[in-house]
Write a structure and sequence with these properties.
mainly alpha, 5% strand
Length: 192
């Protein structure tokens, strides 16, 4: 564990114990990584998307402060939860903009070959959210792997630490989840 990881983990534990000053010290320690995560994800969004990375990070911080009762395990756990919150913020933003299920200017995200096993041009963020909810009903861990890898760009190693599984398990879950999501999204499009 690097000194920064150790410091973040210590601050998270202190914050969980009710030390408000720990949150004040935590914010600058994690802000750069959260901004990197937000930029990573926003690159996949359409160019004219009205939500900017800074606003996405701010929304995540607001939700994190509201979720102060969480018993943080470590830095990776924090960023895993942050990835889930980024997903929720983006989905809520798309819904608030009043986008219809298909067409209607819906937020489109690009799933490239590095993220998904086969290339797919664009996927509606609301369709992806629905697919992830369906995956979570079948296998919650695989859904969390996708959230952390796709929405936050976390490494296989960070995901493994967060989920307390081996890197081989994360790689396998990631591969299976991508195929499952592709099939779900393709069958959903063919059903329409």
């Amino acid at each position: 564990m690097t000194p920064n990881e150790r410091t973040v983990t210590q601050l998270l534990h202190a914050w969980s114990a009710g030390e408000q000053s720990a949150l004040d010290a935590l914010v600058p320690a994690v802000e750069a990584e959260l901004r990197r995560m937000a930029r990573y994800h926003m690159r996949k969004e359409r160019r004219e998307h009205t939500l900017q990375p800074t606003a996405l990070v701010n929304e995540v911080f607001v939700k994190l402060v509201d979720a102060s009762a969480i018993r943080w395990q470590d830095r990776a756990h924090f960023f895993g939860i942050s990835a889930r919150l980024m997903r929720r913020v983006l989905v809520d933003h798309a819904r608030a903009r009043g986008y219809q299920k298909r067409g209607g200017g819906a937020t489109r995200i690009t799933l490239d070959e590095q993220q998904i096993a086969a290339p797919v041009a664009e996927v509606d963020v609301l369709d992806l959210d629905r697919a992830l909810d369906a995956l979570a009903a079948v296998d919650e861990r695989k859904c969390r792997v996708v959230e952390m890898r796709f929405f936050a760009g976390l490494s296989v190693e960070d995901v493994a630490v967060t989920l307390n599984v081996s890197t081989d398990t994360v790689k396998r879950d990631w591969r299976i989840a991508k195929l499952w999501l592709l099939r779900f999204l393709e069958s959903d499009q063919n059903a329409s």
